[in-house]
Amino acid sequence: MNNQNSDKPSSARMYDYWLGGHHHSPIDRAAAQAIEGMIDARALAQINRQFLKDTVSWIAQQGINQFIDVGSGIPTQENVHEVAQKVNPKTRVVYVDNDPTAIIHSRSILGVNHPTVAIIQADMREPNTILTHFDTQRLIDFSQPVALLFFAMLHFVPDNEEVYHLMRQYRDATIRGSYLVVSHGVDTQPNDTTRAVERESVRQIYQGNVAMRSVDDVQPIWDGYQLMKPGFVSAQIWSGKQKMPHDYGPGDIYGGIGRKL
After folding, report:
1. Domain containing 173 — which CATH number?
2. Which domain, by its residues, includes 79?
3. Which of 41, 49, 54 lies closest to 72 in space, CA to CA?
4. pLDDT of 158
5. What does the alpha-carbon distance between residue 184 and residue 153 come to, in Å, rounded to a whole number?
6. What is d(CA 162, CA 164) in angstroms, rounded to the nearest whole number?
7. Is residue 3 part of a domain?
8. Whether the bond into 230 is cis, omega within 30 of 0
9. 159 in a domain, yes or no?
10. Domain assignment present for 1
11. Does the residue 55 lie in any domain?
12. SS in 3 state form for 54-107?
C-alpha cells in the first residue's frame, strides 16, 4: 500500500517508522501503532531488513551485478546498492517505489545522476513501465542475469491471480540464471478465530489492500524458478539464524530466493 495521498497512511512511511526512521507523519504512526497492537510489526520489519541484507549479499557473491528493487521504500542504512557493492563495486541498482516521500528522500540521499544507481517512481503493478523506463534501460542489461527484489511487497496485491500474472511478466523479462527474491507476510494461524479478527483489523487499516497468504498460495510465484535451499521459509531460518520462540501475531515474514530455469 504505497499510498500517494498524504492524508492516508503509507506502507513505505509505516515501514520507516518500524525501522526507527524519521520520515513519517502522525497518520502513518497512528496506523503503524494500531497494527503493532495485533502484530509485532517492528520485529518483523527488522527481520525483513536483515533478510534483504543477507540475500542481496548472497546473490552478489553468485556473480550477479545488477538488481531491480521493486518497492524499495525510504532509504535507511545498508540499502541494496551498499550491500551489493561491498561484493562488487560495479554493481548497478534500480530502485522503484510509487510513494513520493520515498522518491524524494531517495533522490536527496543518492542524487539524480548517480553512475550506478537510479530511482524510479512507478507502481509494481506496471512492470512494462518499470522494465522499459529510460533509467532501467540505462543501467540494466537484460541479456545478462538480473536479480528482481520484492521485499514485503506482494502481499499488497490481494488478488492471487493478479500476483501470479505480474510475476510472470517480470520473470519473462529476464534470462535464465536470473534471480527472484521475495519476502511475504504468511498466515501461520489460519484456523485461529481470534487471529482471524486481528487479520481483518489489519486488512481494514490497509483499506483492504493487503493479504497474508498461505505458503501454498505463494508457491506459484516461483513458477519457472528453482528455489534455493532452504526454500520459502521464515526469513530468520533462511538467514541461518536461530528462530527465537515468539508470537508475532497472526502471521510471520517468509522469504526465499529462486533462480530462473
Report:
1. 3.40.50.150
2. 11-260
3. 49
4. 86
5. 7
6. 6
7. no
8. yes
9. yes
10. no
11. yes
12. HHHHHHHHCCCCEEEEECCCCCCCCCHHHHHHHHCCCCEEEEEECCHHHHHHHH
